[in-house]
Amino acid sequence: DGGITQSPKYLFRKEGQNVTLSCEQNLNHDAMYWYRQDPGQGLRLIYYSQIVNDFQKGDIAEGYSVSREKKESFPLTVTSAQKNPTAFYLCASKVGTEAFFGQGTRLTVV
Amino acid sequence: AQSVTQLDSHVSVSEGTPVLLRCNYSSSYSPSLFWYVQHPNKGLQLLLKYTSAATLVKGINGFEAEFKKSETSFHLTKPSAHMSDAAEYFCVVSFYNQGGKLIFGQGTELSVKP
Question: By CA distance, what is B108's nearest residue in A?
Answer without folding.
Answer: A40
